[in-house]
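Entry for the shared binder. Reason: the reviewer on the internal report wants the predicted structure included alongside the sequence.
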Amino acid sequence: MQLVDNNTFLQQLGALFESTKVKGTIWLTHKRLTHNGDDTVMKEEHESDEIREYPCIVRVTDGKKAAFSTKILSIDLDKFHSAYGALLKASMTTLRKRDKKREKQRAEQLAKRKQRMADPVVIDGPKRGNGRRKRQRQVKAALKHADMKERAAKREEARTKQ
């Protein structure tokens, strides 16, 4: 991951937002930087009197080739956040609105499918004569329903083992 200064970071982030305007994903992470380079374990010293300020690190990646970060000192934080916030607000126009109608429709279909699995298939009608074909379709549907229940039970069993 490439460490760049704040202005370069904002310029590259703007370019990354532009490149993923039609399709793409960007991951942003913000962390307090506590590692000073000597060792990874922070030493507990008697620094309770002294207030220690830690820099902040902001990382960006698109999951493929672009990955860069910047270190923000506490004195530059307000300036950086105002520019960063403006860039994010300008880039939020490309976000898609969630399709709640489609999500609701899928949830209803799933509930309907579960209800059908819970209800048994009723087989009625004569074995011979009028209604024979209807009965054959019902028997076939009952066999398919039993097979579907068996597969769902196996899936659930496999899921509980993991």
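Summary line for the report: The mean pLDDT is 85.
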